Amino acid sequence: MKQATTISPIWGGRFVDVIEEAVGRINSSIDFDRRLWREDIIGSKAHVEMLVAQRIITEEDGYLIAKALEEIAMEIDSGAFKFLHSLEDIHLNIEHRLHEKIGDAAGRLHTARSRNDQIALDMKLWIRGVVDLLDDELKELQIVLIERADQYAETIMPGFTHLQPAQPITFGHHLMAYVEMFGRDRTRLADARRRMNENPLGAAALAGTQFPIDRHMTSAILGFDRPSANSIDAVSDRDFVMEVLACAGICAVHLSRLAEELIIWTTSQFSFVHLSDSLTTGSSIMPQKKNPDGAELVKGKTGRIVSAFTIIAIVLKGMPLSYGKDMQEDKEPCFDAIDNLRLCITCITSIVRTLQANQESMRKAVFTSFITATDLADWLVRETKMPFRNAHYIVGQVVRAAEERCCGLADLPLDLLRKIHHAFDEQIYKILSVDVSLNARTSYGGTAPVRVREQIVEARKRFLNEDCLKF
Ligand code: ARG
User: Which CATH architecture describes the domain 368-463?
Assistant: First the structure.
């Protein structure tokens, strides 16, 4: 038999053999859950305050514990704290240190509590904090997008479908589309936050406790709306992790689409956008290169962010209620996904803040495509009352004629156009003007600069006012 001295001082009462090295390693989470130290200490302080108020422990012990917890927080914050793998996780590391500091009184902290409700609480506090940070960071990205959209509200560019030039739009209009997308990300997160804001502390191992605890009191201290209603659910539930990661995944997809557009726009073929030198990198072999690595990595990181949801869903899918150690596997993917999402938001915000639109290239690209063909078809419908499908066919013939002559639609002579359809007259040259086309798209949410300016005013009200997204 191996030396029994390395058996956990915390749970080792019934154990004789020491833990096998590999099992010790698979069991230990301290390398990654140490970042929950703040939440763990906040939770413990709330718990101890309640234990004192309910006369479950004495005021003296409560005072000793709370003071020592504060000292431990300072030790961890300053880097002086020694984390031990043999103590498995953040809870036991802190509790062990508490014991070193105040002796037996430390043992009273865990009255009416289990690590099962403790970790559910720590994760929830951490995730809730992250939701608030993400909201601030996405709001900042919206602020920057709206500013740039305002600046480019009249800048004409081709709008694409299938990445083929489709209809003229403004760059500001295009940027405002992303403001909507990140706005939905924010409301999704706010919704998840509202749902998750129930306190698991006091569920204990799974069945509650015989001690006369006050879960409403800890809920109030910790900023929860109420205690969770079912103690078994409270320790089994990681929906809040899955929900926020699902939100994170969708947000990462949005960032990735913007990143991809930036990459396309900065190619010499498009040359719509110029990125600041400080946000690009050079090539070690090709001196002419300026690579949009930041945007590429935002796109690349989507994989790990989106996958985090799947990892956790798979961990949970076969778990009988209530707590199981499998749940420990939620942390690394969750932390990784959130860290990377925040990094991506920061990078994209810097890129958008500093990008320069090449308005000339954008305008040129509008003129080299038959981008006002739809306007011509709409005109035929208005003038002749013919069905749109017929107009579409006729304008298709006009496009073919222009293609054959390698010219724009407005360069075709009127007699030729009249051969295609007799209704064509001088007016159509005005219709084919890109600026007329753009300014005429005045339907609600449309691309006409007057409408884009309205969208900007509305978006500022909807997304940037204090508390506008609070549920
Ligand atoms: N490190 C564990 C986790 O992350 C904490 C809870 C452990 N509970 C237990 N009964 N072993 O899930």
Answer: Orthogonal Bundle (1.10)
User: Does ligand 1 have an atom closer than 6 angstroms to the CB of 89?
Assistant: yes
CA of 116 to the centre of ligand 1 (A): 6
Distance CA 200, CA 250 (A): 27
CB 395 within 8 Å of CB 412 = no
Q: What is the 118 CA–ligand 1 centroid distance (Å)?
A: 8
**pTM: predicted TM-score of the whole model, two decimal places:** 0.91
CA–CA distance, 197 with 170 (Å, rounded to integer): 42
Residue 39, ligand 1, Cβ within 6 A: no
- Report the pLDDT value the prediction gives residue 470, as an integer from 0 to 100: 59
CA within 13 Å, CB half, 46: 26
CATH class for the domain made up of 119-158+169-203+230-365: mainly alpha
4-111 architecture in CATH?
Answer: Orthogonal Bundle (1.10)
Pocket test for ligand 1, best of 116, 316, 332, 335 (most atoms within 8 A of CB): 116
Domain ranges in the chain with CATH number 1.20.200.10: 119-158+169-203+230-365
Cα–Cα distance list, 181 to 147, 184, 315 (Å): 16, 5, 30
322 lines ligand 1 (CB under 6 A): no
Q: Tell me where in the chain the CATH 1.10.40.30 domain(s) lie.
A: 368-463
Average pLDDT over every residue of 421-444? 91
Structural tokens at position 118? 């403790």
pLDDT tens-digit map of 27-43: 999 999 999 999 999 99
Catalytic residues: 162, 283
CB-based contact 18:2 (threshold 8 Å): yes
CB 172 within 8 A of CB 381: no
The closest residue, in CA terms, to atom 3 on ligand 1 is 328
